[in-house]
Structure formats: C-alpha cells, structure tokens
Amino acid sequence: MTTRRMTTRQGRPLGVAMIGYAFMGRAHSNAWRQVAATFDVPAFEQRVIVGRDADRVAAAADQLGWSEWATDWRAVLERDDIDIVDICTPGDLHAEIATAALAAGKHVLVEKPLANTLAEAQQMADAAAVAERAGILSMVGFNYRRVPALALARRLVSEGRLGDIRQARVSYLQDWLTDAESPMTWRLRRETAGSGALGDLASHAVDQLQFLLGEPVTSVSATTMTFVPTRPGPEGLEAVTVDDAVWATLGFGSGAMASLEVSRVATGQKNALSVELYGSTGALRFELEQINELWFLDATEPIETQGFRRILVTEPEHPYVDAWWPQGHVLGWEHSFVHELRDLLAGVAAGTPVSPTFAEGLAVQRVLDAIVTSAEEQSRRVEVEPSASASATTDDFSDSAHHRTAS
User: Fold this and answer.
1) Domain range spanning residue 53?
2) Which of 58, 155, 212, 324 has the highest count of CB atoms within 10 angstroms of its CB?
3) Are both 391 and 256 inside the same structural domain?
C-alpha cells in the first residue's frame, strides 16, 4: 500500500475544516472524498465541519464524511490540527472568517464571489498578501476554470490558435426564480448575498472572460433588473433587494469587447453557461450543459473545408483527464471541484500560490462593482479601477494567455 506524503511539521496528515454544509458544502465534501482516490495529493483528513444548527451539522458530518462537527468556527480556527479551511458560507461571512483563518496560519479556500462588497474583497486580498509572505495560501473557488474543456480553451488561446481575440460573448442563464411565488431565501437579500445574479452568476462569467483572454476588464456599461420585486417570506411578502438579471458590455485594454448576460429568471434554462470567443484566426464555443465538448474553428484552413468541429474533451492529453477514465467516459460538473482541490493541495505541498488567488477574486469584484455603478447611472460607461495588486493579477492572467499583437 502506498503511503501518501505528509506535509505538516508534525509529520501528520493535513487537517481540513469546512464551514458551511448546504449546496456548496455538499459539492466540496464530495470533492474532498474523491480527490485522494484519483490524484496524487498530500495526505489529509476531513477533520471537522462547522455550522450554526447543531442537529443539522451533525447530520451533515455523518452524511458527508467528516470526522467531527462543531458550531463555533472561531474555536475551530484555534485548533493546531487544522491546516486548511474551506469556506462555503453565504457571502456576508466570507471576509470575517477568511481573514481570521489567514491570521491563524490556515490555508484558505473560499467559494466565489470573494466577498459581498469591494471593501471586504480588498480586505481579504490584503490579508492574503500578508499571509502569503509567511507561506500561507489562499484560493477563490471559481471551479469552472477546472472544467477540462474550458482549461483546453485557455490552452488554445494561449497557443495563439485564435489569433487576436476581438470579441466574446458569455451568458449564464438559470430559471429557478421564474415562479413569482418562489419563497424568499438568503440569496435574495442584499445583506446576506450582496447581489443577485450579479454575484452568483456574473462572477463566474467575468472570471472566465479574464481567465480566457488573459487580461482584466477595463470598462463596463451595464443594466440590471429585478423582475419580481417581492416574494413570500416567513411573515408575508418581503422585498427582494437584489437583481434578477444583468446585461453588460465589457471592454479590455487590448481593444477586445465582450457581451455579458446573466439571469436567474430565464425560463427553461437550467444551468446554461455559454462561452464564445472570436479571434482573427479562429473561434471557439462552449456550453456547460454539454460539459465534455468544446467547439473549435480554425480560420486558417481552406474556406471550402472550414467550419466548427466538436472536440470531445476526454483524451488523456486533455487537462486533468489522464487521472480519470478511458477515452469517451465522460466527466461531470462535480469533477471541477475535485480538480480544484487537487491544485490547492499541490500548491500547499509545494508552497506555491494557486490561481485564482484572492487578488484575482478582487479583480472580479472590481468589475462587479463597476457594473453596479454603471447600472445605477443609466448604463454610463464606467472605467474599472485597477487593483492595488494589478501587476500580480496581470501576471496571473498572462502566464499562459495569448496577447494581441501589433498590426
């Protein structure tokens, strides 16, 4: 039997604590259970899961594979046997827990978006920069970067297969709030969610654009809409204080332009993330609901045989796939979280930062903040304020990204 390498000074497995046990907690727990069976990662243990309701978190610990449960996250951060903290709470708790965990010397993974406000995101990025100098890592859970087809899309862009990227389209459409009688949840209250489809879905879309194009958004013009202004709450109708849908035009320093549309009231659309990139010598498109496929067009081929071709992204030469099944045996949405943890654990073992960093999460937050400003000012074009750590963020984006060349 192979013994996995230990990475703590005490020679024991890394101890993991997860805070939150609902939808994202279940997705992350599944990934923690799978990652060591698939990838060569440092030894770790699912030590403790934390939640506010003792009965529910105890049941979650039993169901999701955690050794212990707790209701006080602050006490968990004081434990010497905890090395990694995985934060799957609503956004209003991200900043407080993440900064405390970093100060306690814990590596941190936090679900997207980084925070509910730009000020909180800046606080988290600053704390992460200080912690990184002490060898403590932090990462934002933009899991779609780890979908093999989208990772392959980035590879094609970075190799110059699309030439200069001129325009892009990204939409992320869902319909779980189409029914006006759907009840209130924390996701519809600004104080807990920060925003609606903007933070929930547009954060993914913006991250994909900056990830694939290899450069940050520099300007936005946007409109937001709340189609259902009140919903049934525990004590009667309650005002919805976040957006249902967002439309934006995004500009990049290279001259590339992108359109963005996100909605949680798009009837008939379940989890429809769509990405299209159009360059001077090629194009590609991706649909999340066909997660193993990437469509690619090589415009340098003869026009009589030119056209989009389907790439089934299940070959061992494709990103992450060599650890899984034989060709054609498809992967799913949940595997992106497994890949995310694989990269996090590899970074912890090597002592090297793992993308997307909190600085990259802050860059996304600046775009979201600019979208809100533009929408409040009748879609005025708003310049995106560069991050204080803009050079580091740009370096992260450009590691394997293709830059436009002078004509």
Assistant:
1) 14-143
2) 212
3) yes
Q: Are residues 37 and 115 in the same domain?
A: yes
DSSP at 139: E
Determine contact, residues 393/387, Cβ cutoff 8 Å.
Answer: yes
pTM: 0.93
Do 139 and 150 belong together in one domain?
no
Look up residue 304 and give its DSSP letter.
G
Could you give the percent of the chain with pLDDT greater than 90? Answer: 92
Please give the pLDDT value at position 52. 96
Task: List, in sequence order, every residue forming a beta bridge with 160; answer none if it has no partner.
Answer: none
Asked whether residue 125 falls in the same domain as residue 158, the answer is: no
Instruction: Give the pLDDT mean for 333-349.
Output: 98
- Exposure class string for 117-144: b at 16+ Cβ within 10 A, else e: bbebbbbbbbbbbebbeeebbbbbbbbb
Count of domains forming the chain: 2
Burial 43-56 (b: 16+ CB within 10 A, else e): bbebbbbbbeeeee
Tokens representing residue 4 in the block: 């996995």
The pLDDT tens digits for 369-398 are 999 999 999 999 999 998 754 433 334 433
For residue range 259-296, what is the model confidence (pLDDT) as tens digits? Answer: 999 999 999 999 999 999 999 999 999 999 999 999 99
Residue 407 has pLDDT above 70, yes or no: no
Segments in 39-113 forming alpha helices (H): 54-64, 73-77, 94-103
> Is the same domain home to 118 and 157?
no
Give which of 386, 163, 158, 372 is closest to 253, Cα–Cα: 386
Tell me which of 114, 143, 172 is where a domain ends. 143
Asked, as a colleague might, if the bond just before 353 is cis with ω within 30 of 0, I would say: no
How high is the mean pLDDT of the chain? Answer: 93
CA 89 to each of CA 104, 115, 121, 123, 367: distance values in angstroms, whole numbers, following the listed order: 19, 11, 15, 18, 22
